[in-house]
Design brief:
It is built from 5 helices and 4 strands; from the N terminus they run αααββαββα. It has about 130 residues and is α+β, with helices and mostly antiparallel strands.
């Protein structure tokens, strides 16, 4: 395979990716950019009430997802990467075969949980 042709097919801005996800992102994008100010423990607890399976420990929001196989798990990671890029907020990810573990914290807020983390967790839930 021609190397330049292969590279152009894998570009993140390639038309197939852009057309496939830009509409999806615009429909699910938050109306405002969430705050990067640290949330209180009470505010985090309130947010977790709406985020099934998420927990709060070590100043991070955590959840592990299980999929049918490796391909499904990686597909999920790729889809969530579009949200993360759009929000300019990137999760800590760990993949082992069919599981994906996610930790969310805002480094700009001293490694504390913020509205950005809650919003990204909410967006990730829509993908799962």
């Amino acid at each position: 395979m021609n190397r330049s042709r292969r590279s152009s097919r894998l570009r993140p801005d390639a038309p197939i990716l852009e057309s496939g996800f830009s509409n999806f992102l615009s429909e699910h994008q938050p109306e405002h950019m969430p705050s990067r100010e640290p949330l209180s423990d009470d505010a985090i607890d309130d947010a977790l009430a709406d985020l099934d399976g998420w927990s709060h420990a070590d100043d991070k929001l955590h959840k592990t997802y299980e999929f049918s196989d490796f391909r499904e798990a990686i597909s999920f990671v790729v889809r969530l990467s579009f949200y993360a890029e759009e929000m300019m907020h990137h999760p800590e990810l760990e993949n082992v075969y069919n599981t994906v573990s996610i930790a969310l914290t805002t480094h700009d807020a001293g490694g504390k949980v913020t509205e950005m983390d809650v919003e990204l967790a909410s967006q990730i839930e829509e993908l799962a």
